[in-house]
Specification:
The chain is of the alpha/beta class. It contains 8 helices and 6 strands, in the order αβααβββαβααβαα. Helix content is 40%, strand content 13%. The longest helix is centred in the C-terminal third of the chain and has 24 residues, at 184-207.
C-alpha cells in the first residue's frame, strides 16, 4: 500500500511526465473527495518557482493552480514587480484540494503533516525538473514543508534563506492572507508585504544576469 507519492513518480522526471503521472497519484487519501489532481504549471526553464499550500475550490474544479481570488492577488503582485505570470512556474505543496462540506459549500481545510509529507516527492521532483534561480514560498504550510517545522514565517519572511532548493530562496505570505483582511487598510498592508517580498526575489534574479 502506498504511503507517499514516490510510488507514483515516473521514470522520466520532466514536467510533462510528472504531470501525467500525478493524475493517478494515490499517495494519500486526499484524492478520494477531490475532483482531480492540480499539478504545477509554467515553463520548465522558469527562473522563478512559486509554491503555495493546497488547491482551493476553483483550482480543484478547473484543474489549474491559483486561478481563484488568491491567484488574482498573486497576479497583481507579480505584475507590480515586472514579472509576467506566464514566465514563472506555480505549484502547491499538496496537489489535491482538502475541504469540509458545509451544505453546498466546500470549505478549505489545511492539510495535515502526513498529507504534506506524502505529497512532498512531487514538489521535490518539480523543483529538480525546473531548477529555478529563485524559489518563492507562499505561506506557512509550504514554508514548513520545504524549510522544516521550526520555520517562522512572519519572523523570517522577505529574508534570503540558506537552502539547497534554489540559489535564492525567500518566503512570504500566501495571497489568501490578503483576502482575509478585516478591512481595506489591512488588505492593502498584506498586498504590500507580498509585493515587497516578490520584488526581493525579482531583484535577486536580475542580479544574477
Amino acid at each position: 500500500m502506498a504511503v507517499d507519492a514516490s510510488d507514483f513518480l515516473p521514470e522520466q522526471l520532466d514536467l510533462e511526465a510528472l504531470r501525467e503521472a500525478a493524475r493517478d497519484c494515490r499517495g494519500c487519501d486526499l484524492w478520494k473527495p477531490a475532483t482531480q489532481t492540480v499539478f504545477g504549471e509554467g515553463p520548465q526553464d522558469a527562473a522563478m518557482v512559486l509554491v503555495g499550500e493546497v488547491p482551493g475550490d476553483r483550482e480543484d474544479r478547473e484543474g489549474h493552480p491559483f486561478v481563484g481570488p488568491a491567484g488574482r492577488e498573486l497576479g497583481k503582485a507579480l505584475e507590480a514587480v515586472g514579472i509576467e505570470r506566464g514566465e514563472v512556474y506555480i505549484t502547491n505543496a499538496v496537489k489535491h484540494f482538502k475541504f469540509e462540506e458545509r451544505g453546498k459549500r466546500r470549505i478549505h481545510q489545511r492539510p495535515d503533516a502526513k498529507q504534506v509529507k506524502a505529497c512532498r516527492p512531487w514538489l521535490r521532483a518539480e523543483l529538480d525538473a525546473v531548477r529555478p534561480e529563485a524559489l518563492v514560498i507562499l505561506g506557512a504550510t509550504a514554508a514548513k514543508t520545504l524549510l522544516g517545522s521550526a520555520f517562522r514565517l512572519m519572523a523570517q519572511r522577505g529574508q534570503p534563506l540558506e537552502s539547497d532548493l534554489a540559489p535564492f530562496v525567500v518566503a512570504t505570505i500566501h495571497p489568501s492572507a490578503i483576502l482575509r483582511g478585516s478591512d481595506s487598510d489591512s488588505r492593502q498592508a498584506q498586498r504590500e508585504l507580498l509585493t515587497e517580498d516578490l520584488r526581493v526575489a525579482a531583484e535577486a534574479i536580475a542580479a544574477r544576469r
